[in-house]
Write a structure and sequence with these properties.
The chain is α+β, with helices and mostly antiparallel strands. It has three helices and three strands, in the order H-H-H-E-E-E. It has a domain of about 45 residues. The protein starts with a helix and ends in a 6-residue tail after the last strand.
């Protein structure tokens, strides 16, 4: 019988997101810590989302302006 940890660590196996979630939920705390360390060490790219783009510079929504994630207040009263 294959354990959940062995199944998660298998190479060239397709796991649906639902199945992967079920397997991870069935792990004990020690197994989860080990699996997380194993993922970090193995350069497993199945969890890397390359579609995410970082927002840099200025961004504005209507009257509010954000720079580097912080709201910028401007006072135009002269």
């Amino acid at each position: 019988m294959i354990t959940a940890l062995e199944e998660l660590k298998m190479k060239n196996i397709y796991l649906t997101p639902k199945r992967k979630t079920e397997l991870i939920k069935s792990l004990s705390l020690d197994e989860k810590l080990y699996y997380g360390s194993w993922l970090n060490d193995s350069n497993n790219e199945t969890f890397v989302n390359t579609d995410v783009k970082e927002i840099d510079g200025e961004l504005s929504f209507g009257a509010k302006t954000f720079e580097d994630g912080v709201e910028v207040f401007t006072n135009n009263k002269y």
